[in-house]
Design a protein that fits this description.
By secondary structure, the chain is α+β, with helices and mostly antiparallel strands. It has helices spanning about 10-20, 60-65, 80-95, 100-110, 115-125, 130-145, 150-155, 165-175, 180-190, and strands at about 30, 35-40, 50-55, 65-70. A four-stranded mixed beta sheet has the order 3-1-2-4.
């Protein structure tokens, strides 16, 4: 049972109801009826209050006969969503030229579009769309530097559907237009 943390049973109960990530690792929630333990931030259905015990040590909770939740993976030191984020990023890098919508990405990883966007933003501080835009702009910058393709050709080559959107996003990320970017590169070479 919890001894090292200065939170009452009621405070810890509030933290699991709020799914507060700040308390992950400080204590674990064990459910007597299922014999499963979770992080405070676990999004699984909440148990009845009378069925809950709190532990501050992972070894202690496992010694008491509880097994880790498959959803929040409290035994894993890093975020349980690292593999998910890695697979989304891999997909984006490999398919950046395609006209992707959130549903396409969600279908690949097997989540709803809403849940995908929420988890991805929680882990990376960005939406899949803004992450994809950064990948596309990085590819565009590479092409501006290493080819003689026109800005229009590059725009469509990296997956943008409209030139105005390409120019707007390029400027917001690189703080200049594609032409200015190429000109600066040429000036550096001289």
């Amino acid at each position: 049972m919890v001894t090292n943390i200065n939170l009452s049973f009621e405070e810890m109960w509030e933290k699991i109801i709020e799914c507060d990530r700040k308390y992950d690792g400080l204590f674990f929630t064990a459910v007597k009826t299922t014999k499963i333990y979770c992080r405070p931030s676990c999004r699984s259905r909440k148990p009845k209050k009378i069925n809950v015990e709190f532990y501050d040590d992972i070894e202690e909770v496992e010694k008491a006969g509880y097994r880790p939740c498959k959803r929040c993976q409290p035994e894993v030191a890093h975020s349980p969503h690292v593999a998910f984020v890695r697979s989304v990023i891999t997909f984006l890098v490999n398919h950046y030229k395609q006209n992707l919508i959130l549903k396409d990405i969600a279908d690949v990883v097997g989540l709803s579009p809403f849940y995908l966007e929420r988890l991805f933003k929680q882990e990376t501080s960005e939406t899949p769309r803004t992450y994809l835009e950064k990948i596309r702009i990085d590819k565009a910058a590479h092409l501006l530097k290493n080819t003689t393709m026109t800005n229009l050709e590059i725009c469509y080559e990296v997956g943008f559907q409209s030139t105005s959107n390409f120019y707007k996003i390029f400027r917001s990320i690189k703080n200049c237009s594609p032409s200015e970017y190429r000109k600066e590169l040429l000036n550096e070479l001289d």
